């Protein structure tokens, strides 16, 4: 996380240009620019800006009460708890401060993320669940009927699923099922989890809008899970302990589900964890094409408007989720395979 934070700060603060001018657009004058630079510490050296940014991100941070330049305490975005005071400084405990949007009237980046991230999580979970269930079933069937027409079709689908770019498949699927076959599917080409009622009765939950983006986002991980499940299943079937279980007279169903399946899941779990984390970041194209109000769509709009704090906060949030998912996968490994010992 420290490495990601450092790279994000470097890319979005040093390289793009003057953040003060980006915030003011065409309305700037010299005095306004100076005020903005002073308020957000853009007039300080990059090294000091970097330390201030880290200080904002850390839950436990140090702040000066007398410093008239930028400080977290001066901006007071939300509640903090003072833990220790000495001289003119104090340690405070707070929620990590991702700063405020350049373009949305000073709206907190954390608020923007909290409004959009749940939609992305719903989309990613729906997509990965679709890919897991269908991928395991097809992969197991393809392994059990190796070299049959079922196996060949599964392998062909796996290759096609990995080959087609997400943005291209999203356009085709939206056009085909949301426009051409709309009379049959009754699905919209675009739409988010919540839609506004045409008769002025407020927002309502529109789960039908989830179908097309979830299917589109789940195609690529589905293809990977099918291939990995098939390969891992075939490898496990050839192991000595499987032949021993069959020789002892265990039923075919018990051998497959109790012995083979569990011991075949490690590489599949690895792929699922990586793909789930990638779906959170890779949903950008899907959300933008289907107008799904998630963090991916928010990132695209923020990039178009050069709203750097929103982009930075979104990238750091996704990176944190990557780390948490990888830790969770390590814990699952130890449950699936007792030979794996946790340090």
Q: CATH superfamily of the largest domain, called what?
A: MetI-like
Report the radius of gyration as a whole number of Å. Answer: 25 Å
Strand content: 5-15%
For the record, the CATH architecture of the largest domain stands as Orthogonal Bundle
In helices, the fraction of residues equals 55-70%
Count of DSSP H/I helices: 14
Estimate the mean pLDDT confidence.
Answer: 81
Poorly predicted regions are none
Short summary:
With about 350 residues, the protein is mainly alpha-helical.
Structure characterization notes:
- This protein is mainly alpha-helical.
- Helices cover 67% and strands 6% of the residues.
- It has two domains: 2-93, no CATH class; 109-336, MetI-like fold (Orthogonal Bundle).
- The strands form two sheets. Strands 1-3-2 form a three-stranded antiparallel sheet. Strands 4-5 form a two-stranded antiparallel sheet.
- Strand 4 (194-196) and strand 5 (203-205) form a beta hairpin.
- The model has no long low-confidence stretch (mean pLDDT 81).
């Amino acid at each position: 996380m420290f490495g990601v934070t450092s790279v994000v700060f470097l890319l979005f603060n040093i390289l793009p240009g003057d953040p003060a001018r980006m915030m003011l657009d065409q309305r700037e004058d010299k005095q306004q620019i100076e005020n903005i630079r002073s308020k957000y510490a853009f007039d300080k050296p990059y090294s000091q800006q970097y330390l201030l940014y880290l200080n904002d991100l850390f839950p436990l941070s140090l702040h000066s009460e007398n410093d008239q330049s930028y400080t977290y305490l001066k901006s007071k975005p939300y509640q903090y708890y003072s833990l220790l005071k000495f001289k003119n400084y104090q340690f405070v405990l707070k929620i990590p401060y991702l700063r405020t949007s350049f373009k949305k009237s000073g709206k907190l980046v954390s608020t923007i993320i909290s409004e959009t991230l749940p939609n992305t999580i719903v989309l990613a979970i729906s997509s990965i669940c679709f890919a897991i269930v269908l991928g395991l079933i097809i992969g197991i069937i393809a392994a059990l009927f190796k070299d049959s027409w079922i196996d060949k079709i599964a392998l062909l689908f796996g290759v096609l699923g990995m080959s087609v770019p997400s943005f291209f498949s999203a356009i085709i699927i939206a056009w085909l099922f949301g426009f051409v076959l709309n009379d049959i599917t009754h699905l919209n080409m675009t739409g988010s989890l919540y839609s506004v009622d045409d008769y002025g009765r407020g927002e309502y939950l529109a789960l039908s809008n989830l179908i097309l983006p979830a299917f589109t986002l789940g195609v690529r991980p589905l293809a990977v899970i099918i291939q990995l499940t098939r390969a891992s299943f075939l490898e496990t079937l050839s192991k000595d302990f499987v032949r021993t279980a069959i020789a002892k007279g265990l039923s075919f169903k018990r051998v497959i589900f109790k012995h083979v399946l569990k011991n075949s899941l490690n590489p599949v779990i690895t792929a699922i964890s990586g793909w789930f984390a990638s779906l959170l970041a890779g949903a950008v194209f899907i959300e933008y094409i289907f107008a799904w109000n998630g963090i991916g769509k928010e990132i695209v709009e923020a990039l178009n408007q050069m709203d750097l704090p929103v982009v930075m906060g979104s990238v750091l949030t996704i990176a944190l989720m990557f780390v948490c998912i990888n830790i969770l996968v390590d814990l699952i490994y130890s449950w699936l395979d007792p030979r794996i010992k946790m340090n």
